Amino acid sequence: MIDLLFIVSSTDGHTFKICEEMKDQLNESLEAQIIPIEDAPELNINNHKKVVIGASIRYGKHNKKLFDYIDQNLNFLNSGEHAFFTVNVVARKPEKNEPETNPYMQKFLKITNWKPAKLGVFAGKINYSQYGFFDKHIIRFIMWIGKGPTDLRGEFEFTNWDKVKLFSKTL
Prior knowledge:
The structure is a single chain. This protein has about 170 residues and is of the alpha/beta class. It has one domain (about 1-125, about 160-170): Flavodoxin domain (Rossmann fold, 3-Layer(aba) Sandwich), CATH 3.40.50.360. The protein is about 35% helix and about 25% strand. It has six helices and seven strands, in the order βαββααβαββαβα. It has helices spanning about 15-25, 65-70, 75, 105-110, 135-145, 160-170; strands spanning about 1-10, 30-35, 50-55, 85-90, 120-125, 125, 155. It has a five-stranded parallel beta sheet with strand order 2-1-3-4-5, covered by helices on one side. A two-stranded antiparallel sheet has the order 6-7. The longest helix has 13 residues, at about 135-145. It is globular, with a radius of gyration of 16 Å.
């Protein structure tokens, strides 16, 4: 039985990076596995003591596969000390970087029947050079509205890694 399963819904890979950091912070006696949300339905979730689901935001939404997976495994997820965290660029703002104040976390909690035992919110990353033409310009426009970085040559990471480490210690 694997002690801790990280299930990741990531658009550009940064949520995976956050999970890898959490896994590195764990006690060496714990066995942990990280898998993408696309592979999660193939696993028997009951073979894991604790599940942590991390999900990024793109255009104001979590991936639909995330909600499908939660619905299919709701009884298990509501039966233990499982955790959920969201990764979004809005969380770069101090007034929006806690579960109680982050609009995407609040939206998630309203539309799902899962009541995670632990919640986390982490600021994400923008890497304009990684995006295609459409995404690059839409994200730039969103950043302009939200007073974020708009330099198309830039890569901007907002993640507070100390906060990630603190969260991992609660697992």
